[in-house]
Amino acid sequence: MATNPMHQFEVYRIGPEIKLGEIDISFTNASLFMLISSIAILFVFNLGTKKNSVLPSKIQLLAELSYIFVSKMISDTAGSKAKPYFAFIFSLFMFVLFCNMFGMIPYTFTVTSHIIVTFILAIFIFIGVTVIGFIKHGFGYLKLFVPSGVPVLLLPLIVVIEIISYLSRPISLSVRLFANMMAGHTMMKVFGGFVISLGIVGGWLPLSFSVALTGLEILVAFLQAYVFAILTCIYLNDALNLHH
């Protein structure tokens, strides 16, 4: 019997039920892998920065390359004004990346395949960037919705479009990550089911597709973390530099 490819996304409780009023705050498999990802990040960067040597170890090299990569990404997209927010962008990128990569290991759980997780991250970014924009520019931040050089007759329509585009940011940011991770893992599970169903003789073709798809999904896992972080930088750039 074929395994349901959606079963891998099931969230279940680990340990006793914990409730805060009517809200269930029990520890789940999603919580577990978010915790594992966070601990893994701390472990890698603690180990990578403990002994800085001229000839770096592999973990030190990984830590340094990650730092340089995110630093350059912020400088290229948001400029020098965004440097105070480096720690947040770096933590966000590494958290999404590690969650994505842990999800590639068999019998684990892909945290970012759930819309509630990606949406909470996206709405937090949206609110934070909006608050930064108003702190930096006051009500002048509303100029973001009034592009320069637009004819007066078209201005009401353009303003409405700009507002809708701005408010849709957390939706597009969260859905992009969730949809890519969920679709990729579903396809991998489907092809894996074909391999089991067809056996050794007939399963070589879906097996080759599974291997290729796994490699592609690892690339997608990195790219989606990058896209999530770079879009955050672009939104931050709008709030700091107010291009309109």
Give me the secondary-structure topology.
Elements: E1 19-20, E2 23-24, H1 29-50, H2 58-78, H3 86-102, H4 115-137, H5 155-167, H6 169-202, H7 204-241
Antiparallel strand pairs: 1-2
- What is the end-to-end distance? 57 Å
Tell me, briefly, the overall form: globular
Record field, number of beta strands: 2
The helix-and-strand class reads mainly alpha
Please give the count of helices.
7
Low-confidence stretches: none
Description:
The protein is mostly helical and 244 residues long. It has one domain. 69% of the residues lie in helices and 2% in strands. It has a two-stranded antiparallel ribbon with strand order 1-2. Strand 1 and strand 2 form a beta hairpin. Helix 4 runs antiparallel to helix 6. The mean pLDDT is 88.
Keywords:
about 0% strand, two-stranded antiparallel ribbon, mainly alpha, 7 helices, about 240 residues, globular
In short:
The protein has seven helices and two strands.
